[in-house]
Fold this protein.
Amino acid sequence: MEFILILVAWWFGWWIFTSILGFGAKGASAAYKTVTKGGTFAENFSNAFVIKIERKEQNLNVISIKGQPSIQYERELALYIKIYDAEERVPVISTFEGSSEFESRIYEQRLRIGQFKAGQYWPNWVELCDFTDQEIIGPKKGQRKLLVSGFLWDINQPANFKYGIAENIAGSVDFAEIEMPYNFINVGYTELDQNRLKVQGLSVQLAIGLAMSDGSLDRKEGNVIKKWMKEAVEIAPESDRAKVKNSLNKALETGSKKAKEGKTNISNICKQLDQKAGIADKYDVLELCLDVMSSDGKADQEELAFIEEISKHIGIDYKEITKLKERRLLDLELPEAETADVDKALDIDPSWSQDEKKKHIMKLYRKYNGRINSAKDENQKKSAQSMLDLCAEAIKKYG
Amino acid sequence: MANIIGIDLGTTYSAVAKINDSGKPEIVPDEQGNNITPSVVEFTGKEKYSVGATAKKMSEVNAKYCVPNTPGDEAKRHMGSTEKVYEIYDIKHTPLSISALILKKLKEDFEKIHGPIDTAVVTVPANFANEAREATAEAAKLAGLNVENIINEPTAATFACSVLSSQELSGKYVIYDFGGGTFDCSIAEVQGHDIEILTSEGVQKLGGKDIDLALMNLVAKRFKEETGKNLNSRSYGILKAEEDKKSLSDRESILVSIQSPEGLADITITREDFEEVISSLVLQAEMAVEVALERLDLKPDQITDIILVGGSTRIPLVKKSIAKIFGREPKLLGNPDEMVALGAAIYAAYKSEGNILNPLQRQSVHKMNIQEVTGYCFGVEVLDTATGKSKNMVIIDRNEKIPCSITESLATVVDNQTALNCHVTQHAEKEEDLTFVRSVWKGKLELPPGRPQGQEIKVTYSFTENQTMNCTFMDVGTGKKTSVDLDNLRKSADKSTADIDEFKVE
C-alpha cells in the first residue's frame, strides 16, 4: 500500500511535467513552423507527434504513432511506451519481464527508433508494439480508463524510468498520449493484497488435496507444503505473521479433512482462486502442486490428472503448464506404458479425430525422441524414454 | 600391403572388415572363426578379462563380473555418459574403457593373422550425440587404433550396398538399421557411387536386446501363471531368450521347457504372443521411419528400396512393419549383420591417402562421393525480449548439408553492455527451452562500455566435412570476436589421455 501511495504522490508532479512537455512543446513547434515555413498554426499543430491504440483482435491491443516529433537537431531516439490507469493515476504492472522496467514490474516497452533528423516525420500510422489483455495488471479489475503514453527520448541520455517516472528528464524529446476505456481482466494489484490470505489458503487446500489424491499423505509431500507455507509466513509483514500462520494452518486442516473424506472440490476452490488470484498467484499454486507431485519421485496418474484439472479451471495457457510440467517430469518415474492411461499421460483429447490424435502423438514422439538424444543425464534420458514408450502405446491405440 | 579396416562396434555384436587386394571389402572372422563377435567383456581378475563368445556365455552365470551385467546395460548405450560406471573387482570401469577393451580384442584378433592395422574407421549410430562420438574415438585411440574417421552406421551400410550390389543403385533408399541396441533410419539419394544422405532418424534405446528382454519377461509371466512362483533369470535368461527369439523367426511357436529350482513348466509361446509383447518396440521403429519420411516430405512410394541392416530385421513382425509402411516387402541387398563393417572398410579406403592403396583398391573407391547432413541442431542462448528470459535459438538446423556456414545477426540487449555470454548448444529437435538442450561450449566476448543497446553481434557457425564445427561471435561495431573450434576441444582433450587406466573412476 505504501508503494501505491508513493506512486500516486509522484504522479501529480509527473502529470504536470508531461502536460508541459506534450502540449507546450508541440504548441511551440507548431508556432515555429507557422512562422518559418508558413501554414496555419492549426495545420502544423495537427501534424504533431501522436499516439493511438487499437484493438486488433479479441485480445490484442496495438500501439501506433505518427506525425512529426518536436526535434530541433538530429538525435538518436528511443521511444518508451508506458501505460497508466487514468482513474487512479497510477501505472499498470506487466506480467512479463520483457515488457517491464529494469528494476520493477511496471509496464514499459523500450523501442529503438535510431537516428532522427529535424523535420523528419511519420506521415502514416506506424504500428510499434502490442500487448495482450493478460499482459497488464491495473490497480483494479474491470472496466476502467487507460492512458497510453509514448515518450520520445534521446538514446544517449536514457530516461531510466522507475515506478513509471523518469529519473533523468534531460534527454526528453517529445511526448504523446491517449486515453481509452479498457477492461482489465486480471485481478487488480491493489485487490491482490486484500485477497492474499484467502488465495494462499485456497492454494494450500489444493496442494493438500493433490498430495492426498492417492489416499494418504506422504511425508515428502507434506514437507513441500510446509516449506511453502513457511515462506508465505516469512514474507508477510511482521504484524500479520501470526494471522497468516493461523490462517494457513487452518486451510491445511480443512483441506486434509476434505481430502480424507474424498470431498476435495477442485472446481469450487479453483473458481474462488480464479476470482481472487492474480496471474502470478495462479502460477504459484501450479508450481506448488507440481512440487508436491514430484516430491516422491513419481508422477502418478491421479496427480497428473489433478493438476490438469486445476490448470483448466484457473485458465492458465495450457502450453505454459506443459512447459512447467515437462521440467518436473525430467526427474520423475513415469507410469508404466502398458498400464497407464495414455490419453491422460499424453494429453490426448478424446474428442479429437483419429488423424488429430495421430498427429499429436507423432509430434510428442519427435519431441521426446529428440530429448533422449540431447538428455543431460540418465534421469532425463529415462524420463524421455518413458514418454516414447507411452507414445508407442498410444499409436497402438490410435495409429 | 596396407591393412585398411572398418569396425562395426555394435551394442551386442561387433564385426571387422578389411579391404582386400582386389579392392573389395570382406569380413575378417575373429579368433574363434566367427564373423561377428559378441560385445561382452568378462573380468576374471582385476587386470584379466576376455571379450567375445566365451564372455557372453559366462555373462549368464557370472553376470556380476561381466559387462553388460544386466540386459540393456550395454556399454554402447551409455557412451559419452560421465555418470555410468561398472564396478568389478573394486575397479570402476566406464562405458568408454569397456568399449576400448572390445576394440582392443578386435584389433588383436585381426593383427594375429593379418599384421598391423594401418588405418581404421569405427562406426556409430546416426543419432549418437557429440559426446558419444568423441567417447568412441577416444576408445579407439585407447585400443591403439589409428582412427582418423568415424562414420554413421547407416551411411556405412549404404556404402556397402553401392559397392556390393549386383545392380547399380539409383534413387532414394531407406536404410533401415535395427541392430542389437539402437535403431536408425536414414534416407539417402544414391546414384551409382554418389551417395547423398538426406536425413537420419533414430531411437537410442531400441534393439534386439529390448526384444530379448520382452520375451524373457513374457516367459517369466507365463511361468508365474502356471506355478505361482517367480522365475529366476538364471533359469531363463537373456541368452536363452535370444535363441528363442531366433527360433520364433522360423517357427510359428516354440516350447520353452523350464526346469528350475522354482519349479518345472512347459510353456508354449506362439509367434502371435511374441509379436504382441514386442509390438510397442516395433511401433517405435515405425514412428522413426514415418518421421524421417515426413522430414523430407516424401511418400513411401517415392522410395526405391529398403536396405536392411542389423539382425533384428530378420524378425517377421519387423518385416511386416516395413511392408505396412512401404506397401512392399524389403529386398535383402546383403547380410544385415555385416553391411556396416563392410561399408566402414570401404569408407576407410575412401578416406585413406592414395599412396597406401594398391591400384585396384584405388580404382574401387576413386569414383565414390559422399554428401552428409548434420544430425543435430546447433543453437545459441539468447535473451527473449518478450519474456525477459533466456532461450535457445537455432543457428544450424538439423539436416543442413555439410559443409555449411550460417550467420545470424543478434544485438546487445541493454545500454552499456560490456560483455556477451557465448553459449553454444546442441539438440536433436528445435528447442527453445534451455532445459532440454546440451551445452557444448560457453565463452565470453568483452564489449566496449558506453554504447546503447542494439549493437549488432554476428554469430557464425561453420560445420566442416570432417564433422567439426567452428563458432564465431563478432561485435560488428569493433570487429572484435571470439571463436571456438569444437573439434580442437576434443583434440586438446585427447592429448591429456594416454592410458586406459585414466578412464577408470576410482
